[in-house]
Design goal:
- By secondary structure, the protein is an all-alpha fold.
- The chain has a single domain, classed as ACP-like (Non-ribosomal Peptide Synthetase Peptidyl Carrier Protein, Chain A).
- It is built from 4 helices and no strands.
- Helix 1 runs antiparallel to helix 2.
- The longest helix is centred in the middle third of the chain and has 15 residues.
Amino acid sequence: METMFEGVQAILAKQLRVDPGRVVPEARIKKDLGADSVDILQFMIRIEDRYGIAVPDEEAAAFETVADVVAYLEKQEV
């Protein structure tokens, strides 16, 4: 079974067209992985679709690292 991190890693790697090896917990989504605002929006849509949740904009805006996204999703118990 896929871990939450592996799911987020796969979505980000595909979305940003980067090697999954670069998508590590401490990677900063914008600075390290090169995501722009459109990438972030599309990423959040994929997260919401995959896990069946709605992420409030203010929560999404606070995500800086991959670990931030994973921690949020784990708290939602999705």
